[in-house]
């Protein structure tokens, strides 16, 4: 099992349809961009710099996260709530993250290729609609066995069968791949 908490990149005006005023509402990125941002080198803030053993001086430092192997199950949390600065107000990130039904994680695995590979199928999605202070959670999940598995929407006490096309939405918050 691997749990990834992925940042959502800020789309540029050319990646979205609309003006910069409506950028957050109409913006779209794909899950691969989130994975790229997660594995990108990042310069640490000065407070987090490491001390050089020789000079005893704090030095500019970089951080890089990589995945060595592919897990059997993969849970992806999309960071939907963020703050522009530490201690600042928290807001919801409304960017539409387009995610695949079938995910190939090989481009982000640094270790040796495994026999079972790094291919995943989406099995469930937790959704969040609304704002930080007033929101509602629903879920999409596959129910059944083998080829009889069908997508269902779980919304409070109601469970309804839905088309696969309704599973990918801008409310996605947590993705479950196996």
Describe the structure.
This protein has helices spanning 23-26, 31-38; strands at 2-6, 28-30, 42-43, 50-51, 58-59, 62-63, 74-78, 81-83, 90-92, 96-98, 102-104, 119-130, 135-143, 150-155, 158-161, 172-177. It has 2 helices and 16 strands. It is mostly beta strands and 178 residues long. The strands form 5 sheets. Strands 1, 7, 11, 12, 13, 14, 15 and 16 form an 8-stranded mixed beta sheet that branches. A two-stranded parallel ribbon has the order 2-10.
Order of helices and strands: EHEHEEEEEEEEEEEEEE
- The number of distinct helices, counting runs of at least 4 residues, comes to 2
What class, by secondary structure content?
Answer: mainly beta
Mean pLDDT: 90
Describe the main β-sheet briefly.
Answer: 8 strands, mixed
Oligomerization status of the protein chains: single chain
Uncertain ranges: 19-23
Which properties best describe this structure?
mainly beta; 7% helix; 8-stranded mixed sheet; 16 strands; two-stranded parallel ribbon; globular; 178 residues; 2 helices; single chain
Write the layout of secondary structure elements.
Elements: E1 2-6, H1 23-26, E2 28-30, H2 31-38, E3 42-43, E4 50-51, E5 58-59, E6 62-63, E7 74-78, E8 81-83, E9 90-92, E10 96-98, E11 102-104, E12 119-130, E13 135-143, E14 150-155, E15 158-161, E16 172-177
Parallel strand pairs: 1-7, 2-10
Antiparallel strand pairs: 3-6, 4-5, 7-16, 8-9, 11-12, 12-13, 12-16, 13-14, 14-15
